[in-house]
Amino acid sequence: MRAFLAALALAAAPAAAQTQSAPTPQTPPKLVVAISVDQFSADLFAQYRGRFTGGFARLLNGAVFPSAYQGHAATETCPGHSTILTGMRPAHTGIVANTWVNQKAPREDKLVYCAENEAVPGSNHEAYTPSDLHLKVPTLGEAMKTANPASRVVSVAGKDRAAIMMGGHKVDELWFWSGKAFTSYAGRKEPATVTRANAEVSALIARPQNALPLPGWCAGVSTPIQVGPQTLGAGRFERQAGDAKAFRASPALDTAVLGIAYGLAKDMALGRQAAPDLLIAGLSATDYIGHATGPGGGEMCIQMHELDLALGAFFEAMDALGVDYEVVLTADHGGHDMTARQQQRAMPMEQSVDPALSTKVVSDTVARQLGLSGEVLLAAEGDVYVADAVPAAKRRAVIDAATKIYRAHPQVAAVLTRQEIAATPMPKSPPETWTLAERARASFDPDRSGDFLILLKPRVTGIATPGAGYVATHGSPWDYDRRVPLLFWRKGMTGFEQPLSVETVDIAPTLAATLGLSMPGVDGRCLDLDPGAEDTCAR
């Protein structure tokens, strides 16, 4: 599949004549390349950084922050991506989870997907119309366009929510994998690069995929483990002809995204005009693989190797365009391995969540206790909402009864009511020091969050019964889900490593400063990318 990137390059429109070698980073870059690797935890980065020889190896020569934080409690894809190029925590972006409950939604389904327009007739949270409607704040791309309307924003990802949350409200090109093809908002004209990519991917899926090579250094983690009826841990991405789901959970998805991103950069001549441009790539395969097989097996080891090589090919192709570009790479959240493997690897205390904690079980119990009928509690992710059907005089009793049940359970670390969360000041200390209430505050929106929030104890996985495609997850307030790498690179920059914590909300103001822009009022701060006396935040 790595040949796909080269094939796109050969098929793309001829590039303009190459410029002279890129200037040293004393002037603003002509192109910013922002890359998110979904579920790329700081733990994965630490485990494999010594094995990288391709694109990651290049980035390790830049500014390395191995302990960046998605500081909030809701460590999910949509909230995490909403922080990366806005400089704002989910409390301000409004993206409090992948889904939340809106009991006033104009449809039968009251679950709302973060990147949809629920007002579209006939929609539900799984069959929806993609939209940027719920993102409450502007992105870096929008700031660039405000400063100079000629700036262009291109966003490509393996998930719609990644492309939309990083791209924002004013994108020139926005493309994401729909499960069958790369698509966009209705009515958008498909560029030649996307047409070529869809044809190539369609042909690829139609063919069976042989096992990918196993790097020798992956042998130690490539060991089979039985998880229910599945044998996982030693897979090598063999795929039957026509299996689009297996394509999605494989290195090939990321390669396709990078191929489209490069093809659009070339065809649109990004970085070749007076105004700077922004190219966004959301690489989603690591998350799909992590959920399906866990991050601790041979499958993830192969993915890290293949992703490193694909990034290397992508950067080499971008180099050939002769454009001065700056790269940032980070993740939307971390991840935690499956319970069965953790128990085998010296963590016998690992647990799967008790089914007794399910919203239905607790809702039924509370209804019986209070003499109520029907559903009294609704939930999305860890947020729990009192049903509107509950009489106003009984709402407080429902909350008290439910929180008492949850707090008494040995797997529950904390139950925080919306009043407790709202009364907590927004944290200002280093993110590793935040209390659970502060982590919850960072992803609390009074318009969308629940009546109370349940936080499980560390090493309790929120999957009661593992199944096909879903044996490991994230979403907890603990650092294995919050901590991610943050890497900056630009030709000519002097590299350094800062082990102390930073936040992903620092990315947007940092990039803005290198472009000579400011993003006042954001939650993040500008990171000085010069290790010497010069301050890149003061330019």
Q: What's the gyration radius in Å?
A: 23 Å
| First-last Cα distance | 42 Å
Q: What is the count of helical runs?
A: 19
Structure summary, number of beta strands: 20
Task: Estimate the mean pLDDT confidence.
Answer: 95
Explain how this protein is built.
Strand 8 (225-227) and strand 9 form a beta hairpin. The protein is globular. The model is unreliable at 7-24 (pLDDT under 50). The protein has 19 helices and 20 strands. The protein is α/β, with parallel strands linked by helices. 33% of the residues lie in helices and 16% in strands. The relative contact order is 0.21.
SSE map:
Blueprint: H1 3-11, E1 31-37, H2 42-48, H3 55-59, E2 63-69, H4 77-84, H5 90-93, E3 99-101, E4 111-113, H6 140-147, E5 153-157, H7 160-167, E6 173-177, E7 182-183, H8 192-206, E8 225-227, E9 230-232, H9 244-248, H10 251-267, E10 277-283, H11 285-293, H12 298-320, E11 325-330, H13 339-344, E12 351-352, H14 359-370, E13 377-380, E14 383-386, H15 392-408, E15 412-417, H16 418-422, H17 436-441, E16 452-456, E17 460-461, H18 479-482, E18 483-490, E19 496-497, E20 502-503, H19 507-514
Parallel strand pairs: 1-10, 1-11, 2-19, 2-20, 5-6, 5-10, 12-17
Antiparallel strand pairs: 2-18, 3-4, 6-7, 8-9, 11-18, 13-14, 14-16, 15-16
